[in-house]
Amino acid sequence: MTPTSSVISFKEVEAKGDIIEKLKLDEGSIVFEIYRVRLADSSPIAVELTYTPKSIVGNLSEKEFNHSFYDYIENTLNLKIFHVD
Predict the structure, then answer these.
(1) Is the pTM of the predicted complex or chain greater than 0.85?
(2) Is 25 exposed, middle or buried (0-12, 13-18, 19+ CB in 10 A)?
């Protein structure tokens, strides 16, 4: 099985409500809101919604999400992922 993903929507938004609380952000913080379809052998198996603080990952483009975003975080940004919910 070959895993891939396809970005449906990628935008910067102001974090609100639960996102502020769960990501421990200040009110008014900007996050990237990314919807992706996860595929296995080109067949859709899941839709993923990710919120990522701009203050941590800086300026991103959609291309970082067409590959492994977790690899990008660890190998390009040199950040360690401890917990993913």
Answers:
(1) no
(2) buried
